[in-house]
Amino acid sequence: MRILVVGSGGREHTIIRKLKESPKVDKIYAAPGNGGIAKDAECLPIGAMDKQAIVAFSKENAVDLVFVAPDDPLADGMVDTLMANGIRAFGPRAEAAIIESSKVFSKNLMKKYHIPTAEYETFDDPAKAVAYIEEKNKYPVVIKADGLALGKGVIIAQTQKEAREAVKEIMEDKKFGASGNHIVVEEFLTGPEVSVLAFTDGISLVPMVSSKDHKRAYDNDEGLNTGGMGTISPNPYYTKEIAEICRKTIFEPTVAAMNSENRTFKGCLYFGLMITPDG
Known about the structure:
By secondary structure, the chain is of the alpha/beta class. The protein has 3 domains: 2-91, 3-Layer(aba) Sandwich (Rossmann fold), CATH 3.40.50.20; 119-187, 2-Layer Sandwich (Dna Ligase, domain 1), CATH 3.30.1490; 190-274, 2-Layer Sandwich (D-amino Acid Aminotransferase, Chain A, domain 1). The protein has helices spanning 10-20, 51-60, 71-75, 78-84, 94-101, 103-112, 126-136, 160-172, 240-260; strands at residues 2-7, 27-32, 42-43, 65-68, 89-90, 120-123, 141-145, 154-157, 183-187, 193-200, 205-207, 212-213, 231-232, 267-274. A 5-stranded parallel beta sheet has the order 3-2-1-4-5, with helices on both faces. Helix 5 crosses helix 6 (103-112) and helix 7 packs antiparallel against helix 8.
């Protein structure tokens, strides 16, 4: 098989390393790749968002499968374009990728289908968001940009002043661009975080090993969220009992909910979990 992996980060490098282990794989390309990836695959001068160039290269070089890993090209319809041109692709279509590209969509989906999630409200007006936060008067409070922000679009405000500043930065100053046109204001949950990725074909679901993601910068988690400061795996807090509860109440219901919305998700689905005192 000839495989093209779209992306240029550590995630894509790991995927390529694993794909190389398969005896079925003859050639791996990366678009655009990076210096490290160049040791394991042929890097191409094609951007991860350049759908037409990726389609053209795939056709000209008889690529058997395109593995689309980053969120941005998935949300932009990379898989849709590839499949429309008869090219096999791994990853969700844009209509399904919205579950990871829009926090407003994912929160509303969980509310509609009774999937456990933190209490929240969504806003497209900064004044209304601030008024809601001040009315609740509970701190810390979590303020999230709706769209993709490289894992950095979440601010945990410790005070009313910080909350006001966070809303202004995201919605008015456009710190995260158009991703901040809408925000989610969410209750702050306490407890160990758990990250679980799962393969799904839209019907069955197979979780990978759990991990504990450390996202906030600086010692004692005093900084802003980042794309990730490191992980440990498996997560010591994610027991077999908790895994079974998550499968029945979160994982499988999410796949079913996406099917009910005619947004069948096929690919690798991310679940960000918190183990709180209440469950």
